[in-house]
């Protein structure tokens, strides 16, 4: 009988240690930055009148660009996310630096946008049917006979 009590207590201790490792919240969540890290010192160096070459030297190549007639814009995006051990990703913070250029490729303005400045776009779930009707796999097989 004392042997069974000893085995039970060893099993309980092993189980407690195993469960203690599973309950640690720091091991389940990792924090990381995606995209550019936009330092405040680099942001302060960008001023109106500077060339695109100087912006490239300070910030690097843009992640995205856009042109509006005579003007263009470069975008640097920084996203801070938390990812769980199960693969779920949660965006905690997003910063978008937009640098606007004139037709002479000189900085005319810069703007910093956050996650709160974004707008949620709803995805349309309606589908356009093909040939007037949607057929299931079974309907297609039965129609081929």
Task: Describe the model.
The protein has 145 residues and is an alpha+beta fold. The protein has a domain at 29-123: 2-Layer Sandwich (Beta-lactamase Inhibitory Protein, Chain:B, domain 1). It contains 4 helices and 5 strands, in the order αβααββββα. The chain has helices at residues 2-22, 40-45, 52-59, 137-144; strands at 29-35, 64-68, 71-84, 89-101, 107-114. Strands 1, 2, 3, 4 and 5 form a 5-stranded antiparallel sheet that branches. Strand 3 (71-84) and strand 4 form a beta hairpin. It is flat, with a radius of gyration of 28 Å. It starts with a helix and ends with a helix. The mean pLDDT is 80.
CATH class of the domain at 29-123: Alpha Beta
Q: State the assembly state of the protein chains.
A: single chain
- Percentage of residues assigned to helices: 25-40%
H/E topology pattern: HEHHEEEEH
Mean pLDDT: 80
CATH topology of the domain at 29-123: Beta-lactamase Inhibitory Protein, Chain:B, domain 1
Give start-end ranges of low-pLDDT stretches.
none
N-to-C span: 73 Å
Q: Compute the number of strand runs.
A: 5
> Which radius of gyration do the C-alpha atoms yield?
28 Å
Helical run tally: 4
Which word captures the global form? flat
Pfam families: BamE
Keywords: Cell outer membrane, Membrane, Signal
GO biological process, one term: protein insertion into membrane
Protein name: Outer membrane protein assembly factor BamE
